[in-house]
Structure formats: C-alpha cells, structure tokens
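BUG-322 | component: ligand-complex export | severity: low

The export step for RRO jobs runs without errors, but we want the raw record kept on the ticket for reference. Input record follows.
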Amino acid sequence: MNIDQIEHKTEIDMSVELAGIRMKNPILTASGICGYGLEYLPYLDLGKMGAFTTKSITLEPRDGNPAPRMAETRAGLLNSIGLANVGVDKFIVEKLPQARRLDIPIFVNVAGRTVEEYCEVASRLDEQDAIAGLELNISCPNVACGALEFGVDADQAGMLVSAVRKVVKKRKLIVKLTPNVTDISDLARAVVDAGADILSLINTLRGMTINIENRHPILPRGVGGLSGPAVKPVAVYCIWKVYNEVAGKQNIPIIGIGGVQYWSDAIELMLAGATAVAMGTVMYVNPQAPLEALVGMEDYCRRHKVDRIADIIGTAEPPRAI
Ligand code: RRO
C-alpha cells in the first residue's frame, strides 16, 4: 500500500470530566444492568467504558419482588426488581474488590427506606477508596416505601440530600431523578441546593401491562419501571430542561440516562446537556452496544470537526419557535 493511501484518522479526545472525576470516554453503565461488575465480563470488557455504576445497595440484603420481574413491551422493558441486592456489608467485602479491578471510576447506587438508612449506607460507602461517587436513588418505582417517596417531593428530596451530604465527605454525590413528576427542574433545583455534585436522569417511568386472557397485571405488583427506546424522548426533554433551567447555570454535570441504543442517541443526550451517557436496557439485547456507540461517536466528532467530545455538551440549538 502506498503511504498516501493510508487514512489518517484524527485523534478525538473522548474524555469528559464529571465534577472532577475523569472518565476516558462519556459512556457508562446504568445502575441495575450489570450487577456488581464481574457478572457481565464474559459479554463485554467493562474496563473499556468510561465508568461503571452498580446495582442499588441497601443497608440489609433484599430478595426483591416476586417473579416475574420483567415484562417486555413493544418498545421497551418493564421491570419490578424491587431493589434485590446483597446489602452494604457483603457488597463492601465481596463485590467492591472485584469491581475495583475494572480500573475505571465506580459509582455505587444507594437506596433506603428512611433518611437514617440512606445515611448509614452512604457513610459506610464513603470510607471506600475504590468508589468515585455515590448515586443516591430517590427514584425507584418498585418498592412500597422510601426511594420514590423522596424523589417526587422537592422538600423531601432536599431534606434527604442535605442529610446524606453531611455524611458523604470523600466521594462525589450524584442524585438520580425520576421523570414521574410534574416539573423535574423543581427536584433538580432542590437537590443541587442541598449539595448534589452531579445529577443523573432519568430513572424509569411508571408503567403497567395486563395479560388480556386472565386479566391479571403481568408484574405481581402491577406497576413497573419502563426503560428502553420508548423512553428516550422523555430523557432528552428532561435533560434539556434540567440543563437549561438548573444544571448548566450552576456548572453541575448531568449523567444522561434513558433508552440509549446507538451512538446517535448518546450524541443527542449530550447535545441536550449530558456530560456522560449511561446505557442500560440495550445491553440485554447487544452487550457490545456501548463499544459500538463509542466508535460512532468518534466518527460524528470527525464529521463535525469537533476535537473534544466535551465541546458538544449542551450545544443543542434552541427550539425554532422560542
Ligand atoms: O430494583 C428496581 O426495581 C429498580 C430500581 Br432500584 C430503580 O431505580 N429503577 C427501576 O426501574 N427498578
């Protein structure tokens, strides 16, 4: 081959920074998809991701909700896992050392029933050097008390985040928001004022599906959390709104989550205001989707003459009618 025929691809800087945490690229896993890390390794080299987020951790171990816990819908997935997890103590001893081996920033999703429980779990995890940040889950739709009760009321959410902020001194505090509210910016404002370093959005939307033959809801609790491609436009809107009304003004980075399947979806969430983008449901269909997305994102940058992917964050043009 003649030297002139070799295509020289420009180097794109794919790294992003989340409140001081450097990610080598903007793609991470959404909580709940890849367990505690190593379970997924036969399917994907998670070390190539920008960061990893664990399944939610509570104070005591939880079995979760009865089966079936998942129901496929036309453009997504309803889940009702019910916070199944090994509990914070076993997580620290058995799971965290394995996750650490990925050698990328580890975010641990934290849930609880009471303010005291959230604080207890958060303070124990704050002592763990292997963890870059705690993602406070105030948005799980699948448990009878806790989580979503805090997440749908700005005063309650602010009160919870202030209490957790007092015990989280060494790790970054991420707060994960639900779209199941009238105005997500009110919630974002409350948790940022209470000390959140980073916002992540969106958690799943409440949904239901009914077996028309026996007339029972398919999920035992009836309600479940909807994820997958159906929710992407909701995610884009929520991220765009929170970025423009709250986060962008106060320099609070957003982890965008919701129905991302392809590189173009990830770019769309970044244009809306996300600094990093989590992938979840798609990984049940195509475990390699995050790595494929990264290739497409680099190509997009090349085509648009962008040297650093971080330069596209929040650069969506305003709607034409405004
Ligand atoms: O465990 C779950 O059922 C669950 C959680 Br913690 C969450 O945050 N979001 C979701 O859709 N399911």
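Assignee comment: Attached the raw record above. The first helix runs from residue 88 to 100.
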